[in-house]
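Example 3.2
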Amino acid sequence: MTRPVTMKAMVTKGHGDLDQMVWHSAWPCPSPKPGEVLIKVGACGLNNTDVNTRSGWYSKTVSDATTGDAFEEVGTDDPTWGGAPLVFPRIQGADVCGRIVEVGAGVDPKRIGERVITDGWLRDPKDPLNKDKTGYFGSERDGGFAEYTTIPAQNAITVRSSLSDAELATFSCSYSTAEGMLTRAKVTETDTVLVPGASGGVGGALVQLSKRRNARVIALASEAKHDDVALLGPDLILPRAPDDLRESLRTEKITVVADVVGGPYWPQLIAILERGGRYACSGAIAGPMVEFDLRTFYLRDLTFAGSTVIDPEVIRNLVRYIEVGEVKPALAAIYPLEQLHEAQSAFIAKKHTGNIVVIP
């Protein structure tokens, strides 16, 4: 293949509202450096990291829920997931499915033509388990909201599947985030897992991956989305935020809460955990500031696990689950890349149940 000089790309110019994402029809096409591959993007998924990074929500100066809008004040030294300033302009988008069309020096040319999905965690190859030496695709380097992207070869994971590019682009972030949470919480067949926000991308993945571990799963979701959530296989579906969660659960004994919601409802989630229960968190879309009674925490022998940087084997295990059909995509909608503003607006408004992807 002759690599084009320019490509179409949606480029984020700075923190702020949707207008910070600017469409370019002739952005410079990247070339793979040593150890990297060039991917022709077939589809790229959306996730909360894209929204939060663009808006600056990760900054400690922000205490509101994720809205996707610009905030009055965003700290200049900690506005990204890693707590360091982002370099602009930046092409976001971590969840790529596509094909390798060129390789850099040191990469086997036989990889050209491989269909891949991306492992978003950019690790130090000499110290891959060191979480302080990680970056994120679409954050610390350009990602997939473009026709082409480059990534370290070890982060381009070969996948053999009859699923479409758009379907495969739903997995990388949402499902690896969910599997990372369940791994941290050590979920097994003896557990009953409560999943707030089960209609979202990570929430739906948590339902499927918990069932894969043979756990019992209770899903919380708005009633209008119960039919869609039911297709994911939970054992019980409750409204998004019952007034009395304990009463709604009746005899259910919750041993794990897997949460990406947070917000004002958070104390009820903690209050219903059984003694010795575990709480795993990888997001706070309803708000990062919560009311926390330490007595509930220590008197009930609870364990809390934050989950962001996942271990390298998680994404490879996920690809194996995909290839043998143990998980299925929850593809909600497809938008052209140039309509990324509309796609993010729909994502923020939770217009769809499941994952949204864009295609160049």
